[in-house]
Specification:
Blueprint lengths: L1 H63 L7 H65 L15
């Protein structure tokens, strides 16, 4: 009986340790998701800054070529550059948000797995104790039947 109780305690301990490990991993994933979103926002800002610089260089190049920077061609060039920059910026933000959402989804799975480990430890422990109790108290279901020669 003492062995069964010790085994049950070990199962509960193992389940709780696995849950702690899963919770730790989930916390890391949450931090990774936040970092991914933040890095994406920073990359988007960099794209925007570089886009402004590129637009400035394009206007400067037009002016140095003695072209009217207010002409329809210059405005079109500026608009094409601005549109591409905005598209790249939004793509970067979208990518970061998708990656963050995927990591957060993994957080949920990891936490659920941790709860399942803990529950499995409790159920295993309960099964061990019940089995040992039934054997110890002689529930009859696992006793060998007496034969005629034993009376």
């Amino acid at each position: 009986m003492a062995g069964a109780i010790l085994g049950a305690g070990a199962q509960v301990y193992q389940g709780s340790q696995q849950k702690k490990a899963a919770d730790f991993r989930a916390h890391q994933l949450e931090e990774d998701a936040a970092a991914e979103r933040e890095a994406s926002a920073l990359r988007a800002q960099k794209i925007e800054r570089e886009g402004r610089a590129q637009r400035g260089r394009a206007i400067n190049d037009l002016a140095s070529a003695n072209l009217d920077v207010g002409s329809l061609s210059a405005v079109k060039i500026d608009k094409v550059i601005a549109d591409r920059v905005e598209e790249d910026r939004m793509q970067e933000i979208l990518y970061g948000n998708r990656r963050g959402a995927k990591l957060e989804e993994e957080v949920g799975f990891t936490r659920r797995a941790g709860r399942n480990y803990r529950t499995g430890g409790y159920l295993g422990a309960a099964g061990s104790v019940l089995s040992a109790g039934a054997t110890y108290y002689g529930g009859g279901w696992n006793r060998p039947r007496a034969t005629l020669g034993e009376y």
